[in-house]
Design goal:
single chain; alpha+beta; eleven-stranded antiparallel sheet; 33 helices; 25% strand; rod-shaped
Length: 1455
Amino acid sequence: MAQCVQSVQEFIQDSFVPLVAALCSEEAERLTRKNSLSFAELVKPFCRLTSEVHMRDPNNQLHIIKNLKIAVNNIITHPPQPGAIRKLLNDVVSVSQPAEGLVANVITAGDYDLNISDRSVKASVPWYSNWKETLMELNTSTFYSATTPWFESYRECFLQSMPASDHEFLNHYVACMLVVSSSEPEPVEQFLKLSQEQHRIQHSSEYLYPKWFIPNTLKYYVLLHDVSTGEEQRADSIYEEMKQRYGTQGCYLLKINSRVSNRGTDEQIPDPWSQYLQKNTIQNQDCYEDSYTVISNKNTDHLISDGLDGEIKDGLSNNFKTHPLQLDHPSGSLASTDYMKATASLQESKKPNSGTPHGACLTLTDHDRIRQFIQEFTFRGLLPHIEKTIRQLNDQLISRKGLSRSLFSATKKWFSGSKVPEKSINELKNTSGLLYPPEAPELQIRKMADLCFLVQHYELAYSCYHTAKKDFLNDQAMLYAAGALEMAAVSAFLQPGAPRPYPAHYMETAIQTYRDICKNMVLAERCVLLSAEILKSQSKYSEAAALLIRLTSEDSDLRSALLLEQAAHCFINMKSPMVRKFAFHMILAGHGFSKAGQKKHALRCYCQAMQVYKGKGWSLAEDHINFTIGRQSFTLCQLDNAVSAFRHILINDSKQSPAQQGAFLREYLYVYKNVTQLSPDGPLPQLPLPYINSSATRVFFGHDRRPAEGEKQAATHVSLDQEYDSESSQQWKELEEQVVSVINKGIIPSNFQPTQFCLNRYSDNSRFPLAVIEEPITVEVSFRNPLKVPLLLTDLSLLWKFQPKDFNAKHDGETELGTCDNDMIGTEAIAEFLINSEETKVARLKLFPHQTGELHILGVVYNLGTVQGAVTLDGIDPSVALQTGKFVSNGLSVRGRQDLEIQGPRLNNTKEEKTSIKYGPDRRLDPIITEEMPLLEVFFINFPTGLLCGEIRKAYVEFVNVSKCPLTTLKVVSKHPEFFTFGGNTAVLTPLSPSASENCSAYKTVVTDPTSVRTALLSSASSVDFGVGTGGQPEVIHVPLPDAVLLPGASVQLPMWLRGPDEEGVHEINFLFYYESIKRHSKMCHRVLRHTAVICTSRSLHIRATVCRSNALEDEEGRGDNMLVFVDVENINTSETGVKEFHIVQVSSNSKHWKLQKSVNISEDKDTKLASRERAKLCFKAVRCKNSEENYTFADIVFGNEQIISSASPCADFFFQSLSSEFKRTHVQSHTHASQRAVKQSFDETVRLIQRCSEVDLNIVVLWKAYVVEDNKQLILEGQHHVALNTVGKEASSFPQKQELPETVLLKFFRPENTPVPARPTPEQLSNLIKTSLHYPESFNHSFHQKSLCLVPVTLLLSNCSQAVVDVMIDLRHKTTSPEALEIHGSFTWLGQTQYKLQLKSQEVYSLQLKACFVHTGVYNLGTPRVFAKLVDQVTLFETSQQNSMPALIIINNI
């Protein structure tokens, strides 16, 4: 239960005080009205005695009374109506509110304020431990004690407004003050009239109200004297006369109004009346202006009005006949209502002049006189009268028939063990209607008990109540018995020293009797209020809560709400606070307050309960509370709170049904609309729906790409429809860096910023992005609808701020612009944007910058509304019907905004950043608008999607400048330069149109002479013409624009030859087109355009080639160096592609040192055809070229009727590109052996010179045609394959073979050793140092009969294949290795020298004449000479090997 300002003893004592009636003459009332007070109000602040009072009990024992208070009220002759009492209580509660600054509002997430009542208690999640700790503190600390002043005001007003009843005397008047002014003509006669009037009211059957304690009521005569205007001598003389007539103890002269009004401003006199008359309105002066107030303003003035201002008829008005709570009576007496504090405060709060000071004519001396007057009245009049009455009643009771002992002895017997067992309440008859006559002894006991209770003689009161209770129960007078039980329990509790425990069962019986038998809820409520306070003071919070909850019922919502609230406070004051019970009962209390019209209190209760339910996952409970808070706040015109509450309902993951969510949303929109109408020119409010995933916001710079038009295919570039790929993004960045490096002569500028067309959560957003003037900026915002009902956004657009800047000027004038200035930034709005239930949907919003400067995109602005019929009916999802057509809004929409706030990436570089949480900037929404730049569009014409491996196809590229600036320095960069070419310098730059060249060959051809078949046709070309060997990067290709400039609006078409990649499969080939503006800009130096070509290649031919040295030492021209080239061509194409057969139409060679001379094929076929899976072998003779270090020699061996000029585009282009890519591949591999090279440099050049002998630099190009049947038409496809021959005897292939992955093996760890330098060259390398050749007749005829020895001349030709001088030694001795060798070689011998030592110069051919001697016929192998060679400056000899040579067989015939 909430903490009270008073202790429970003070509360009970002040609830039951002696009542004194006041009857004033008209003149006396006028005197008091000078102070804006009635007489009863005048004495009210002084009605509590400041000193102890002594009186004697019936046993003549001295009894001390402390802190006694009396109540002085005007006489009211009609009991108050129940309806009026209810209205008064309702008003009292309405007036009393917590201070404005301490009202609990809607609670936000995170830490929250636990506002139990009028104190703020901080609590945090996790809630349980903190709640427990906080509430234990709340329970034990006085500072955090929660007070509920509205409940105390209600309770005080309730107890004071209880009508007097016949079964008890606590509300009966004990005495009556008769007040007359000294200024009246005949004051004594006026006293007589007042006395007669009082007697008539008490004893006449005409008046049943008010009730009087005893027939002989004490009359106290008060003469009121106005010091400022009256004659003091006359007043004194009248007072003397009164003392003679009424005795000194029965009258009093009260002097007031000593203050002169004209000096009132000089003196500040305290106003003790304000705390009584305005007690409940100090905090809230204007709370009665609220719309929900039960009493309307037009009825206020005549509800409680001043009836004493009218004429007095017959010397005295009958104003006391009407109760101030009379509902249907226009005039009542304000002066007569002063026994109810809240009435006065209510009146004061509603009057416009509620600030009128009270007691304006009174001085501090007058205050003391009034205080002294009350003290004299109590000491000399009231208490002696009560003491006398108690004695009389006690004497009557003792003399009662059958009672032979006093009450005290009887009480002892009752409590010593001879207690009569009481009947339970269920056994008693309903005799609540039983009435005792006024003189009944039982009522006299009760009357004596009440008098003792009023003067704090609780022990005697308890004895009397106990006696009366027994008598009433015996008579089954249940109403009387319940009253006696109630007061007996209170008396027992209030007895000093607590001689007996509080009999709570008495109270429970009384409550049950009042409620169930007597049907008197007012008395039952009084019992509950008293008992709950007593139980609370004994820390019996659980019992108090149960008692309070028991009395809640439907007959009074206000009472139920107040009691439930107090029960809730009991739950959190327990030793172990029951927080959830507190919250639950606060909800019930809030509901009761709402039904009773107490909107502010209802809102407060729901807000306090919300603090417990918030964030615990009880979403349905949260929704209910928030909805109610929103409703109540809206009713109270607390629109911000209402909006906030409804916002909480919508932003949580609601588990409500779609219909309920739709109702919540409509309510929210309605409230929001009212808020915006109050301040139409204010800032746009933040809307909670739909959710925006700010981090998913994407920003795209530039126009949308054009769709394909017929054969024209636009460059893919970048669009918002593409998914982000980090690997691809890195590739584009590397390509751009590559081309920028080439443009800037190998250096990337420090201010280089990679072009980013689309910014998202994965891109680098640390820099301000660059946008171009007059080019759109598209912002993709991701919306999510958390509700199960569709949301309709209308007039959706971006919110931005812009600062114009001229980047070429030195000084800028900056101005901030709003969203309305479309001259600076054009804003595109989406008229309608529907988001279906629980759907995530993106909206693409555009801005069109018309001026350079700094743009800041702040958020989105839109109208939020719903769609008619959005609730699913008959199980049909309405979203199906809402996909197309115009959406029908239900007419309720509000305009608001949502900000786009993007958190940057977390920083994790420095130690400080790693140990703290810091985020970097994300500037994707803050683009810089730069000057005008050229804008390129690229279209591809006849661009294939499928090719054979190595196939050559001619396409066209159209470059269009769609801007107003000329562009230049157009380049294209790709990781696969071998895939395409624009032609070298030999290509024609003004090609035919694509349609005219549709059926022509992609190659440059000439008709060949039939006599030149299979003989090489020679031509030459420089690699510089094809962009190779210039020192630049082969990936960066210059686009040959006419005049190197593309003017605004101009377009140019260039041929592009494509070659299918050598490996089958799907290939993604990235093109990056780079271009610049003629005018240099400070912010943006260049622009790029991206294109990704997807090519699917299928298998065609597989080429393998080998080169070996020819045995012939000389060619036709007498040159000594020639080789044989073997080419193996296999058709590995599958029949699925429709390729019928391949024709080998030409084989060409490209080299600086070698050339093909002729074909040595035996076959007579002019054409070489290969069907599926067929293989052909070709053999060519190759000879060394004349020394030409600059140009490549192209030799074409034609198998058909047309020669393809291999030294022209596109054949030479693709050859040189494959050459550069091959060079790049081997160059990368050589880099991996850098450490080995460092060791090799220390080795002598010997090995290198020997290795060079076995190296050959010959490239073979096989050109072919494929015949394809497609759609019953035969197409001819062309293509070429390249084979690079580098080493003699080593096979090379048209594409590198895929290495099989090794099987999984155990991981071995070893120490890396220094790579050993080979001490000797390999045998293959040695065999190629000196080439030998034996010249001799194939058969020799000799007559052995004539001459036994046959001498045959043999010429040994020695050819130095190296570039150095070589020492050669020839050993003619047979080296016997096996019996077979002896058989072969044993029958002939060499004549002459057995060893020769020669020195051969570079490339020299030496002829050595030898003689072989044979003794009989046979076949002999002459290849026995052993040749050793070494370089001149070397010591070691290397034996050459002739294993690759054919056997030198000679036939010796006998004639």
